[in-house]
Amino acid sequence: MRDAEVVSFRKARLEDLRAILELLNDGKLGNVLERIEDPMPKVYTDAFAVLSADPNQLLLVGEIEGRIVATLQLTFIPGIAHQGAWRAQVEAVRVVRDLRGRRIGEAMMRHVVALARERNCALVQLTTNKARDDAQRFYRRLGFTASHEGMKLRLT
Amino acid sequence: MRDAEVVSFRKARLEDLRAILELLNDGKLGNVLERIEDPMPKVYTDAFAVLSADPNQLLLVGEIEGRIVATLQLTFIPGIAHQGAWRAQVEAVRVVRDLRGRRIGEAMMRHVVALARERNCALVQLTTNKARDDAQRFYRRLGFTASHEGMKLRLT
Q: Is the pTM here over 0.90, yes or no?
């Protein structure tokens, strides 16, 4: 069976954190590396607790036979604009290297769109580094429009 | 005195909603128009209540002598990535038409950066429609980098 058909998506659990950090470290574009250490650094368990306690945050993992193969963070953002529309925002998307090109990312994004519809979001949005041509093509194929400039100001 | 020197910024109050909607409607790029009606439509008072109750949301207004002259929405987003870094995200930025070009927007964004530092955010981020050349120049001048594509998928 195809990987995209057997992957299941669920809210991350504390014991998934190490696998999530490994996914985050693979495919970095010169950013801060995550600290994969034992015991798990407190910055991550603290961040995990904050995400878990917030009903507008969902740290998602994709799993195949007990292996974490994909992750992303979904944030539901309320707003006044567009007649009080909610937005679903996607960050930190990763698929494990040896299973790329097998539509797991696509399955995960379709799962995100379904969750966003459940929450009555008017929009799904994300930014992707301009250096990642393949990611832009991927999101366009899923119906996203590159209508905006994604602007960042680093403070640290 | 220059307008940028006399504008003060604070959390929006319910009675500011009408002025905020008027600001949102001015300068739309073919998006949904806001409903400026009396009584205030429930979608907005509901949205305002959601924002007010969430410590990670700040609906900001800029005021000069009791007049609301600018607004934006700031969202503080926790995360696992970048060693548990928080992001400050800016949406729905508007300055009243007759006071544009007087550095009120700049003062408001500097206020945002200060708030983001107070909250230990690693990054301030936003997306701006590619049709708004002037907005891109504005954010670049403030130190933002247009490093990312801002991708949107409308669900409604």
A: yes
